[in-house]
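Narrative of activities, Objective 1.

The group set out to show that a structural description can be obtained from nothing but a protein's sequence at a throughput compatible with the screening campaign. Below is one input-output pair from the validation batch, recorded exactly as produced.
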Amino acid sequence: MRRMEKWFANPAAAILLVVSNLVPLAGVLFWDWDVGSIVMLYWSENVILGVYILVKMIARATVGGWFAGVFFSVHCGGVCGVHGVGPQATGPRLTTPN
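Output recorded for this entry:
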């Protein structure tokens, strides 16, 4: 229950989060945005956040923190790699046919 209390502690942030994630959906449905481009946008966001988290981990690292940073780099790099290659390999199928 505590997690829900934190979520609703700032309703403006919750509303902004939902609305900001509905904008790409509306773009695809109503404004003919390319789905592949939106997937790559979310992938880029994932990479940027991964680098940011890694920098924070290294800045606060103790000896065990360095191991956690290496582990995170391998894990996040692998996930980002797979998620980056997938849309590239299936790119033409992600777009809407004309």
